[in-house]
Design brief:
Layout (H helix, E strand, L loop, with lengths): L2 H21 L6 H15 L4 H26 L16 E9 L4 E6 L2 E7 L10 E8 L2 E4 L1
Length: 143
């Protein structure tokens, strides 16, 4: 492979990885851009193609290992709580008998009526007071 072809190869790799990085919303290929830059510099300095490939791999892996934990922490997406989360731990009144086997049951909590299922699987009769343990989809799991 000619030196010009090697320069073009590493320049193309830089371009492809940079475009790929730009098209994604997460850091996916920035480390390969750095590895490609290191390999291109090695090629310009006259290193053999084998050394260039090893340098590409080493710089990519090392930069990934050194920066990924910090970047993940910095980019961590925080889950936003909804108003429904306020129901968890609240007391609710059973307005329709809760029977998991029959897939029936409703409770009224904080002025809203929700479909409900029993956490233990027990049938809970209308009029009883229960505590909301969690939300699964659009159903409250109560105890």
């Amino acid at each position: 492979m000619s030196q010009t072809a090697v320069y073009i190869l590493w320049a193309a790799a830089i371009l492809v990885f940079a475009v790929l990085e730009g098209l994604t919303v997460q850091l996916v290929s920035i480390w390969f851009v750095l590895g490609s830059v290191a390999a291109l510099i090695a090629a310009l300095c006259g290193a053999s193609f084998t050394v260039q490939v090893v340098l590409f791999a080493a710089v990519s892996v090392i930069s990934l290992l050194l920066t990924r934990p910090f970047v993940k922490k910095w980019l961590k997406i925080k889950a936003e709580s909804t108003n429904a989360d306020r129901c968890i731990g609240a007391r609710a009144v059973v307005t329709e008998t809760i029977d998991n086997l029959a897939a029936t049951g409703q409770v009224k909590v904080q002025g809203a009526v929700w479909s409900a299922r029993s956490a233990s699987g027990a049938v809970v009769e209308t009029g009883q007071t229960v505590t909301v343990k969690r939300i699964e989809g659009v159903k409250l799991i109560v105890e």
